[in-house]
Write a structure and sequence with these properties.
By secondary structure, the protein is of the alpha/beta class. Helices cover about 30% and strands about 25% of the residues. It has a seven-stranded mixed β-sheet. Strands 10-9-8-11-12-14-13 form a seven-stranded mixed β-sheet. Bound molecules: S-adenosylmethionine (SAM).
Length: about 350
C-alpha cells in the first residue's frame, strides 16, 4: 500500500533521503510529505525509526465520488472490522480540492456517519482518519502515529521556542551530521540538537520510548515490532550544549537523563560570548538562536549573532557552523562565511532556514 510521511513543508527532500537510507521504498516526494510503498510492518518501522516524519499515514482505500451520498456509501462498504478495533472512536478530518464535493465539513459528517454505522463514534481522542478529495478521487488514510512523532517521549520540560525534534533531525542531516563527530549547540534551550545528535551517534530509534496508534490496531504483531528495534552502538563522540539560562540547562540535563543519553551528552551554563570548543576534535556547531519572529524584534539580536560569529571565528578552527534562523540579516550579522542558505522551512508559521559554513 501507499504510506504517506508528513513533514514540514521545505523538508520533504531531506526526509525522502532519510527514508531511502533506512531501506524504505520512496515513490514520490510532494509538498508536505513523502510517499512510500510498503506493508504494515513498514508502517510500524517508519514510525519507530524515521527521525524526520511528523506522522505516518497508511492509505486504506481510494475511490471516485461525485456526490456526498456516493462518498458515504463507499465508506460504509469498507471492511472496518479488519482495520479498526471493535467500537473504537475515530476523528475524521477532510479536505477537498478541485472536486465536485467541495464542502469539507459536509464530507467529514458523511464519513463520520458511515463509520458510526459500524459502531465507530466521533471523538477527538480517537483514531485519526484523513479524507482527501482531490479531483473527485477520495483517499482514506489512517493516522498510524497518534501523537505527533516529534514527541519522542523523553521531554517533560521544554524551554521557550523549542525546535521540533523532527526538524532538528533533518537539519542535522542537511548539515551532514552522521553521529561520527562531536556536536555543540551553544544556545541549546531544552537540548533538542544535542539530544537528537546523541541519539544518532548511539543509533537509538527515535520512537523507542513512546507508543503509537498502530499498536492498538487489530493487525498489530508485537513480536514482529519488537524485532524491528535497532541494535544500539557506542558513541565515538559526545554531544554538548550550553545556554546562558540556568533553567534551560537543568531541563536539558533532565531530558537527556530520561532519554538514556546522560553518558553521551554534557551541558553547561555559559553565555555565547564565552564559549570554547568542548573537546579537542572539531565537529559541528549548530544553533537555533532566538529570532525576532518568535521571541521579539530582530534588531536587538544583531549583537548576539555578531558575538556568536566572532567567537566561532576566533576560537573554533576546523569546526563547521550551522545556524537556524528566520532572518537573513541575523545570519549575516554573524560575519560567518555561509554557503547559500538551505530550503525555507515552515516552523509553526515562521519561515526558517539553515545557514552553513565549511570548516572554519
Ligand atoms: C530559540 S531558543 C533555542 C531552543 C532550542 N533549540 C530548543 O529546542 O529548546 C534560543 C536559546 O538561546 C538562549 N540564549 C539567548 N541569548 C543567549 C546568550 N547570549 N548566550 C547563551 N544563550 C543564549 C536562550 O536562553 C534560549 O534558550
Amino acid at each position: 500500500m501507499d504510506i504517506f510521511l508528513i513533514t514540514a513543508p521545505g523538508l520533504e527532500t531531506l526526509l525522502a533521503a532519510e527514508a531511502r537510507e533506512k531501506g524504505f521504498k520512496v515513490t514520490q516526494t510532494s509538498p508536505g510529505g513523502v510517499t512510500l510503498r510498503g506493508d504494515w510492518p513498514a508502517v510500524w518501522r517508519a514510525n519507530l525509526q524515521l527521525r524526520g516524519a511528523t506522522r505516518v499515514l497508511a492509505r486504506l482505500t481510494s475511490f471516485r465520488a461525485l456526490y456526498l451520498s456516493q462518498l458515504e456509501k463507499n465508506v460504509r462498504e469498507v471492511d472496518w472490522a479488519a482495520v479498526l478495533p471493535r467500537g473504537a472512536d475515530v476523528t475524521v478530518d477532510a479536505v477537498c480540492h478541485k472536486s465536485k464535493i467541495y464542502h469539507a465539513g459536509a464530507a467529514q459528517e458523511r464519513v463520520a456517519s458511515a463509520l458510526a454505522a459500524h459502531g465507530h463514534n466521533a471523538d477527538p481522542a480517537g483514531f485519526g482518519l484523513r479524507v482527501r478529495i482531490e479531483r473527485d478521487i477520495v483517499t482514506l488514510s489512517l493516522d498510524t502515529s497518534g501523537e505527533s512523532l516529534h514527541r519522542r517521549g523523553h521531554k517533560e520540560a521544554v524551554n521557550k521556542a523549542p525546535l521540533r525534534e523532527t526538524m532538528a533531525a533533518l537539519f542535522l542531516r542537511d548539515a551532514g551530521f552522521k553521529g561520527k563527530e562531536p556536536l555543540f549547540d551553544p544556545m541549546c534551550g531544552s537540548g533538542t540538537f544535542p539530544m537528537e545528535g546523541a541519539e544518532i551517534a548511539r543509533r537509538f530509534d527515535p520512537g523507542r520510548g513512546r507508543d503509537f496508534a498502530f499498536q492498538s490496531l487489530p493487525n498489530f504483531d508485537p513480536d514482529a515490532f519488537e524485532a524491528m528495534r535497532s541494535p544500539e552502538r557506542a558513541a565515538a563522540f559526545s554531544c554538548y550544549g550550553s545556554d546562558r539560562d540556568q533553567g534551560a540547562i537543568a531541563m536539558s540535563r533532565a531530558n537527556a537523563e530520561r532519554a538514556g543519553l546522560a553518558d553521551v551528552t554534557a551541558f553547561e551554563v555559559k553565555p555565547v560570548g564565552e564559549i570554547t570548543p568542548p573537546c579537542d576534535t572539531p565537529g559541528l556547531v549548530i544553533a537555533n538562536p532566538p529570532y525576532g519572529g518568535r521571541i521579539g524584534d530582530s534588531t536587538p539580536l544583531l549583537g548576539l549573532y555578531a558575538a556568536f560569529g566572532a567567537r566561532l571565528k576566533s576560537a573554533f578552527p576546523g569546526w563547521r557552523a550551522a545556524v537556524v534562523t528566520a532572518d537573513a540579516k541575523l545570519a549575516q550579522a554573524t560575519g560567518l562565511p555561509f554557503r547559500p542558505a538551505g530550503p525555507v522551512v515552515n516552523h509553526g508559521g515562521i519561515k526558517i532556514r539553515l545557514w552553513q559554513t565549511d570548516p572554519l
